Amino acid sequence: MIDEQNVMNVLKNVQEPELKKDLVELGMIKNVTITDGKVKLTLALTTLRCPLKNQMVDEIKQVVGGLPGVSSVDVQLAAMSADERKKLFPKHPLVGIEKVNRTVAVASGKGGVGKTTIAVNVALALQKRGHKVGLLDADVYGPSVPLMLGVSGKPEVEEGMLIPVEKFGLKIMSIGMLLKEGQAIIWRGPLVSGAIRQLLGDVMWGMLDYLVIDLPPGTGDPSITIAQEIPEMQVLMVTTPQEVALADVRRAVELFTKMKRPVLGFIENMSYFQCAHSTERLEIFGRGGGQKLSQETGLPLLGAIPIDMEISRTGDSGVPLMISSPDSETARIFLDIAMQTEEKGCDS
Ligand SMILES: Nc1ncnc2c1ncn2[C@@H]1O[C@H](COP(=O)(O)OP(=O)(O)OP(=O)(O)O)[C@@H](O)[C@H]1O
Ligand SMILES: [Mg+2]
Predict the structure, then answer these.
(1) Which domain holds residue 135?
(2) Considering Cα of 330, then 333, then 334, then 335, what sign does the dihedral take?
(3) For the CA of 137, the nearest ligand
(4) Structurally, how many domains does the chain consist of?
(5) Which of 6, 50, 203, 286 could be stapled to 242 by a disulfide with Cβ–Cβ 3.0 to 4.6 Å?
(6) pLDDT digits (tens, 9 = 90+) for 31-90
(7) Which one of the ligands is nearest to 268 CA?
Protein backbone atom coordinates (compact mmCIF):
# COMPACT_ATOMS: atom_id res chain seq x y z
CA MET A 1 0.00 0.00 0.00
CA ILE A 2 1.38 3.40 -0.86
CA ASP A 3 0.93 6.34 1.44
CA GLU A 4 1.40 10.08 1.31
CA GLN A 5 5.04 9.72 2.35
CA ASN A 6 5.78 7.56 -0.71
CA VAL A 7 4.17 10.14 -2.95
CA MET A 8 6.12 12.98 -1.33
CA ASN A 9 9.35 11.01 -1.62
CA VAL A 10 9.08 10.53 -5.37
CA LEU A 11 8.01 14.14 -5.86
CA LYS A 12 11.36 15.20 -4.43
CA ASN A 13 12.66 14.16 -7.85
CA VAL A 14 10.58 16.76 -9.67
CA GLN A 15 12.07 20.23 -9.94
CA GLU A 16 10.48 23.61 -10.44
CA PRO A 17 12.23 24.35 -13.76
CA GLU A 18 12.95 28.01 -13.04
CA LEU A 19 13.76 27.87 -9.35
CA LYS A 20 15.73 24.63 -9.73
CA LYS A 21 14.53 23.20 -6.44
CA ASP A 22 12.21 20.28 -5.86
CA LEU A 23 8.48 20.77 -5.53
CA VAL A 24 8.31 19.37 -2.01
CA GLU A 25 11.08 21.58 -0.69
CA LEU A 26 9.34 24.59 -2.26
CA GLY A 27 6.07 23.70 -0.54
CA MET A 28 4.27 23.43 -3.86
CA ILE A 29 2.59 20.07 -3.19
CA LYS A 30 -0.54 20.13 -1.08
CA ASN A 31 -3.68 18.12 -0.22
CA VAL A 32 -2.37 14.68 -1.12
CA THR A 33 -5.12 12.04 -0.87
CA ILE A 34 -4.98 8.41 -1.89
CA THR A 35 -8.09 6.30 -2.34
CA ASP A 36 -7.98 2.85 -3.91
CA GLY A 37 -4.81 3.64 -5.82
CA LYS A 38 -6.18 6.97 -7.04
CA VAL A 39 -3.84 9.79 -6.09
CA LYS A 40 -5.10 13.34 -5.92
CA LEU A 41 -2.92 16.34 -5.14
CA THR A 42 -2.68 20.09 -5.59
CA LEU A 43 0.24 21.84 -7.23
CA ALA A 44 0.52 25.38 -5.80
CA LEU A 45 2.13 27.60 -8.44
CA THR A 46 3.87 30.92 -7.88
CA THR A 47 1.38 32.21 -10.45
CA LEU A 48 -1.35 30.49 -12.43
CA ARG A 49 0.18 32.13 -15.49
CA CYS A 50 3.33 30.06 -15.00
CA PRO A 51 4.21 28.96 -18.54
CA LEU A 52 5.93 25.81 -17.26
CA LYS A 53 3.00 24.38 -15.33
CA ASN A 54 2.16 21.67 -17.88
CA GLN A 55 5.71 20.42 -17.82
CA MET A 56 5.52 20.06 -14.02
CA VAL A 57 2.11 18.34 -14.17
CA ASP A 58 3.43 15.83 -16.72
CA GLU A 59 6.43 15.02 -14.56
CA ILE A 60 4.30 14.64 -11.44
CA LYS A 61 2.01 12.23 -13.28
CA GLN A 62 4.95 10.26 -14.52
CA VAL A 63 6.74 9.78 -11.19
CA VAL A 64 3.63 9.27 -9.04
CA GLY A 65 1.98 7.09 -11.71
CA GLY A 66 5.11 4.93 -11.63
CA LEU A 67 4.58 3.96 -8.00
CA PRO A 68 3.30 0.40 -7.54
CA GLY A 69 -0.43 0.28 -6.97
CA VAL A 70 -1.23 3.75 -8.36
CA SER A 71 -4.04 3.62 -10.93
CA SER A 72 -4.50 7.32 -11.62
CA VAL A 73 -2.99 10.70 -10.75
CA ASP A 74 -5.13 13.82 -10.60
CA VAL A 75 -3.26 17.13 -10.33
CA GLN A 76 -5.24 20.24 -9.44
CA LEU A 77 -3.64 23.63 -10.00
CA ALA A 78 -3.76 26.44 -7.48
CA ALA A 79 -1.90 29.69 -6.90
CA MET A 80 0.18 30.36 -3.83
CA SER A 81 -0.96 33.10 -1.54
CA ALA A 82 1.07 36.30 -1.40
CA ASP A 83 2.41 35.17 1.98
CA GLU A 84 3.52 31.81 0.65
CA ARG A 85 5.25 33.53 -2.24
CA LYS A 86 7.02 35.84 0.19
CA LYS A 87 8.25 32.83 2.16
CA LEU A 88 9.56 31.31 -1.03
CA PHE A 89 11.56 34.38 -1.97
CA PRO A 90 12.67 35.61 1.44
CA LYS A 91 15.91 37.15 0.25
CA HIS A 92 14.12 39.47 -2.13
CA PRO A 93 11.80 41.81 -0.33
CA LEU A 94 10.13 42.77 -3.61
CA VAL A 95 8.19 39.66 -4.51
CA GLY A 96 6.95 41.25 -7.72
CA ILE A 97 10.37 41.69 -9.30
CA GLU A 98 12.19 38.60 -8.10
CA LYS A 99 12.48 37.29 -11.63
CA VAL A 100 13.73 40.52 -13.16
CA ASN A 101 17.30 40.10 -14.25
CA ARG A 102 18.41 43.74 -14.59
CA THR A 103 16.82 47.00 -13.52
CA VAL A 104 17.86 50.10 -15.43
CA ALA A 105 16.49 53.46 -14.34
CA VAL A 106 16.44 56.47 -16.62
CA ALA A 107 17.18 59.53 -14.52
CA SER A 108 18.08 63.16 -14.77
CA GLY A 109 18.58 65.99 -12.36
CA LYS A 110 16.18 68.07 -14.40
CA GLY A 111 12.65 67.91 -15.73
CA GLY A 112 11.71 68.05 -19.39
CA VAL A 113 15.02 66.78 -20.77
CA GLY A 114 13.49 63.73 -22.45
CA LYS A 115 13.65 61.03 -19.77
CA THR A 116 10.34 59.46 -20.69
CA THR A 117 11.12 59.60 -24.42
CA ILE A 118 14.42 57.85 -23.74
CA ALA A 119 13.01 55.31 -21.26
CA VAL A 120 10.31 54.29 -23.76
CA ASN A 121 12.60 54.06 -26.78
CA VAL A 122 15.48 52.36 -24.96
CA ALA A 123 12.98 49.80 -23.59
CA LEU A 124 11.75 49.15 -27.14
CA ALA A 125 15.33 49.00 -28.43
CA LEU A 126 16.28 46.40 -25.79
CA GLN A 127 13.27 44.41 -26.80
CA LYS A 128 14.22 44.66 -30.45
CA ARG A 129 17.57 43.19 -29.53
CA GLY A 130 15.79 40.10 -28.30
CA HIS A 131 15.11 40.78 -24.62
CA LYS A 132 11.94 40.49 -22.59
CA VAL A 133 11.39 43.99 -21.24
CA GLY A 134 9.16 45.71 -18.72
CA LEU A 135 8.67 49.46 -18.40
CA LEU A 136 7.80 51.01 -15.07
CA ASP A 137 6.68 54.62 -15.00
CA ALA A 138 7.58 55.76 -11.50
CA ASP A 139 7.32 59.47 -12.25
CA VAL A 140 5.08 60.49 -9.40
CA TYR A 141 5.02 64.10 -10.60
CA GLY A 142 3.84 63.48 -14.13
CA PRO A 143 3.37 59.90 -15.24
CA SER A 144 3.46 60.18 -19.03
CA VAL A 145 4.32 56.67 -20.21
CA PRO A 146 0.63 55.75 -20.77
CA LEU A 147 0.20 58.73 -23.10
CA MET A 148 3.43 58.06 -24.96
CA LEU A 149 2.53 54.41 -25.52
CA GLY A 150 -1.19 54.93 -26.01
CA VAL A 151 -2.30 52.72 -23.12
CA SER A 152 -5.25 53.57 -20.95
CA GLY A 153 -7.37 51.96 -18.29
CA LYS A 154 -6.58 50.21 -15.06
CA PRO A 155 -4.41 47.15 -14.70
CA GLU A 156 -6.14 43.87 -13.88
CA VAL A 157 -5.66 42.35 -10.46
CA GLU A 158 -4.99 38.65 -10.15
CA GLU A 159 -4.25 36.77 -6.94
CA GLY A 160 -3.70 40.10 -5.23
CA MET A 161 -1.08 41.17 -7.76
CA LEU A 162 -1.32 43.89 -10.41
CA ILE A 163 -0.92 42.58 -13.95
CA PRO A 164 1.07 44.90 -16.24
CA VAL A 165 -0.60 46.15 -19.40
CA GLU A 166 1.03 44.88 -22.61
CA LYS A 167 1.75 47.06 -25.63
CA PHE A 168 4.29 46.70 -28.44
CA GLY A 169 5.49 43.58 -26.60
CA LEU A 170 6.46 45.57 -23.48
CA LYS A 171 4.98 44.95 -20.04
CA ILE A 172 3.94 48.34 -18.78
CA MET A 173 2.95 49.66 -15.38
CA SER A 174 2.53 53.31 -14.50
CA ILE A 175 1.87 55.09 -11.29
CA GLY A 176 -0.69 56.97 -13.41
CA MET A 177 -2.72 53.74 -13.72
CA LEU A 178 -3.06 53.54 -9.96
CA LEU A 179 -4.43 57.04 -9.56
CA LYS A 180 -8.01 57.99 -10.21
CA GLU A 181 -8.54 60.10 -13.29
CA GLY A 182 -7.73 63.74 -12.62
CA GLN A 183 -6.56 62.87 -9.13
CA ALA A 184 -3.87 65.24 -8.02
CA ILE A 185 -1.68 64.11 -5.21
CA ILE A 186 0.55 66.19 -3.05
CA TRP A 187 3.31 63.74 -2.49
CA ARG A 188 4.66 63.52 0.98
CA GLY A 189 7.37 61.12 2.05
CA PRO A 190 5.28 58.24 3.42
CA LEU A 191 2.76 58.48 0.60
CA VAL A 192 5.50 58.29 -1.99
CA SER A 193 7.15 55.29 -0.35
CA GLY A 194 3.79 53.52 -0.08
CA ALA A 195 2.96 54.04 -3.74
CA ILE A 196 6.45 53.10 -4.87
CA ARG A 197 6.45 49.95 -2.75
CA GLN A 198 3.16 48.97 -4.33
CA LEU A 199 4.56 49.58 -7.82
CA LEU A 200 7.58 47.44 -7.09
CA GLY A 201 6.16 44.78 -4.83
CA ASP A 202 2.62 44.19 -6.09
CA VAL A 203 3.18 43.96 -9.82
CA MET A 204 3.45 40.52 -11.39
CA TRP A 205 6.28 41.24 -13.81
CA GLY A 206 7.12 37.60 -14.41
CA MET A 207 10.46 36.76 -16.01
CA LEU A 208 12.12 39.83 -17.47
CA ASP A 209 15.59 40.43 -18.83
CA TYR A 210 15.23 44.17 -18.21
CA LEU A 211 12.97 46.39 -16.20
CA VAL A 212 13.37 49.97 -17.43
CA ILE A 213 12.22 52.60 -14.95
CA ASP A 214 11.22 56.15 -15.85
CA LEU A 215 12.25 57.99 -12.69
CA PRO A 216 10.80 61.29 -11.53
CA PRO A 217 13.03 64.29 -12.22
CA GLY A 218 15.38 65.55 -9.56
CA THR A 219 17.04 64.15 -6.51
CA GLY A 220 14.14 64.38 -4.09
CA ASP A 221 12.36 61.80 -1.95
CA PRO A 222 10.77 59.76 -4.75
CA SER A 223 14.06 59.09 -6.54
CA ILE A 224 15.79 58.25 -3.26
CA THR A 225 13.01 55.87 -2.22
CA ILE A 226 13.09 54.00 -5.52
CA ALA A 227 16.87 53.67 -5.43
CA GLN A 228 16.71 52.43 -1.83
CA GLU A 229 14.07 49.85 -2.67
CA ILE A 230 16.00 48.35 -5.58
CA PRO A 231 19.53 47.44 -4.52
CA GLU A 232 20.52 46.19 -7.99
CA MET A 233 19.35 49.28 -9.85
CA GLN A 234 21.63 50.82 -12.45
CA VAL A 235 21.19 54.26 -13.96
CA LEU A 236 21.19 55.85 -17.40
CA MET A 237 21.61 59.58 -16.89
CA VAL A 238 19.97 61.96 -19.34
CA THR A 239 21.38 65.40 -19.96
CA THR A 240 21.04 68.14 -22.53
CA PRO A 241 23.97 69.98 -24.12
CA GLN A 242 23.70 73.29 -22.32
CA GLU A 243 25.71 74.28 -19.29
CA VAL A 244 22.69 75.12 -17.10
CA ALA A 245 21.51 71.52 -17.13
CA LEU A 246 24.81 70.16 -15.94
CA ALA A 247 24.71 71.24 -12.30
CA ASP A 248 21.48 69.29 -11.74
CA VAL A 249 22.79 66.24 -13.52
CA ARG A 250 25.99 66.33 -11.47
CA ARG A 251 23.94 66.36 -8.30
CA ALA A 252 21.96 63.35 -9.50
CA VAL A 253 25.15 61.45 -10.40
CA GLU A 254 26.52 62.16 -6.93
CA LEU A 255 23.33 60.94 -5.28
CA PHE A 256 23.21 57.60 -7.12
CA THR A 257 26.93 57.03 -6.78
CA LYS A 258 26.73 57.64 -3.04
CA MET A 259 23.88 55.15 -2.84
CA LYS A 260 26.00 52.63 -4.79
CA ARG A 261 23.59 52.54 -7.70
CA PRO A 262 26.02 52.55 -10.64
CA VAL A 263 25.56 55.15 -13.35
CA LEU A 264 26.20 53.28 -16.59
CA GLY A 265 26.71 56.46 -18.60
CA PHE A 266 25.20 59.63 -20.01
CA ILE A 267 22.76 60.12 -22.84
CA GLU A 268 22.78 63.60 -24.30
CA ASN A 269 19.35 64.47 -25.65
CA MET A 270 18.38 67.23 -28.07
CA SER A 271 22.02 67.25 -28.97
CA TYR A 272 21.82 68.81 -32.43
CA PHE A 273 19.46 69.28 -35.33
CA GLN A 274 20.28 67.57 -38.56
CA CYS A 275 18.82 69.54 -41.43
CA ALA A 276 17.28 67.26 -44.01
CA HIS A 277 18.81 69.25 -46.86
CA SER A 278 22.40 69.40 -45.69
CA THR A 279 24.96 67.46 -43.75
CA GLU A 280 25.36 70.31 -41.31
CA ARG A 281 24.46 69.73 -37.68
CA LEU A 282 22.94 72.71 -35.91
CA GLU A 283 23.78 72.70 -32.23
CA ILE A 284 20.72 74.62 -31.15
CA PHE A 285 21.10 74.11 -27.41
CA GLY A 286 24.83 74.64 -27.28
CA ARG A 287 27.28 71.79 -27.26
CA GLY A 288 29.35 69.42 -25.28
CA GLY A 289 27.29 68.90 -22.10
CA GLY A 290 27.45 65.12 -22.26
CA GLN A 291 31.11 65.13 -23.23
CA LYS A 292 31.99 67.45 -20.39
CA LEU A 293 30.17 65.31 -17.81
CA SER A 294 31.82 62.22 -19.20
CA GLN A 295 35.28 63.75 -18.86
CA GLU A 296 34.57 65.01 -15.36
CA THR A 297 33.24 61.73 -14.04
CA GLY A 298 35.04 59.16 -16.14
CA LEU A 299 31.66 57.67 -17.08
CA PRO A 300 30.96 57.05 -20.77
CA LEU A 301 28.77 59.11 -23.07
CA LEU A 302 26.56 56.34 -24.46
CA GLY A 303 24.92 58.35 -27.20
CA ALA A 304 23.74 61.72 -28.46
CA ILE A 305 20.16 61.94 -29.65
CA PRO A 306 19.30 64.68 -32.12
CA ILE A 307 16.30 66.95 -31.99
CA ASP A 308 14.06 64.83 -34.17
CA MET A 309 10.73 66.04 -35.50
CA GLU A 310 9.56 62.43 -35.45
CA ILE A 311 10.08 62.32 -31.66
CA SER A 312 8.11 65.48 -31.02
CA ARG A 313 5.46 64.45 -33.54
CA THR A 314 5.07 60.99 -31.99
CA GLY A 315 5.49 62.19 -28.39
CA ASP A 316 1.80 62.05 -27.61
CA SER A 317 0.51 60.01 -30.54
CA GLY A 318 0.89 56.75 -28.64
CA VAL A 319 3.33 55.34 -31.21
CA PRO A 320 6.95 56.02 -30.23
CA LEU A 321 9.79 56.50 -32.68
CA MET A 322 11.20 52.95 -32.33
CA ILE A 323 7.87 51.71 -33.69
CA SER A 324 7.00 54.48 -36.17
CA SER A 325 10.50 54.82 -37.68
CA PRO A 326 12.44 51.69 -36.71
CA ASP A 327 14.96 52.17 -39.52
CA SER A 328 15.74 55.84 -38.92
CA GLU A 329 19.11 57.18 -37.85
CA THR A 330 17.67 58.10 -34.42
CA ALA A 331 16.35 54.55 -33.95
CA ARG A 332 19.85 53.30 -34.73
CA ILE A 333 21.22 55.51 -31.95
CA PHE A 334 18.69 54.04 -29.48
CA LEU A 335 19.69 50.52 -30.54
CA ASP A 336 23.33 51.41 -30.00
CA ILE A 337 22.54 52.74 -26.50
CA ALA A 338 20.65 49.49 -25.78
CA MET A 339 23.66 47.45 -26.90
CA GLN A 340 26.01 49.43 -24.66
CA THR A 341 23.58 49.05 -21.77
CA GLU A 342 23.78 45.26 -22.24
CA GLU A 343 27.57 45.37 -22.22
CA LYS A 344 27.91 47.80 -19.33
CA GLY A 345 25.74 45.63 -17.14
CA CYS A 346 28.28 42.88 -17.18
CA ASP A 347 31.17 44.79 -15.68
CA SER A 348 29.58 47.21 -13.26
N1 LIG B 1 15.21 64.37 -29.13
C2 LIG B 1 14.05 64.99 -29.16
N3 LIG B 1 13.61 65.59 -30.29
C4 LIG B 1 12.43 66.25 -30.32
N5 LIG B 1 11.58 66.31 -29.28
C6 LIG B 1 11.94 65.72 -28.13
C7 LIG B 1 13.19 65.01 -28.00
N8 LIG B 1 13.26 64.51 -26.76
C9 LIG B 1 12.13 64.86 -26.11
N10 LIG B 1 11.34 65.59 -26.94
C11 LIG B 1 10.04 66.18 -26.60
O12 LIG B 1 10.22 66.99 -25.46
C13 LIG B 1 9.14 66.87 -24.57
C14 LIG B 1 9.64 66.41 -23.19
O15 LIG B 1 10.13 65.09 -23.31
P16 LIG B 1 9.87 64.01 -22.17
O17 LIG B 1 8.47 64.03 -21.75
O18 LIG B 1 10.45 62.74 -22.67
O19 LIG B 1 10.80 64.64 -21.03
P20 LIG B 1 10.88 64.24 -19.50
O21 LIG B 1 12.29 64.49 -19.07
O22 LIG B 1 10.35 62.89 -19.29
O23 LIG B 1 9.93 65.31 -18.86
P24 LIG B 1 9.32 65.30 -17.37
O25 LIG B 1 10.42 65.81 -16.50
O26 LIG B 1 8.18 66.25 -17.48
O27 LIG B 1 8.92 63.91 -17.05
C28 LIG B 1 8.17 65.88 -25.20
O29 LIG B 1 7.18 66.61 -25.88
C30 LIG B 1 9.04 65.13 -26.21
O31 LIG B 1 8.29 64.67 -27.31
MG1 LIG C 1 8.76 62.24 -18.08
Answers:
(1) 95-347
(2) positive
(3) 2
(4) 2
(5) 286
(6) 999 999 999 999 999 877 677 889 999 999 999 999 999 999 999 999 888 778 777 766
(7) 1
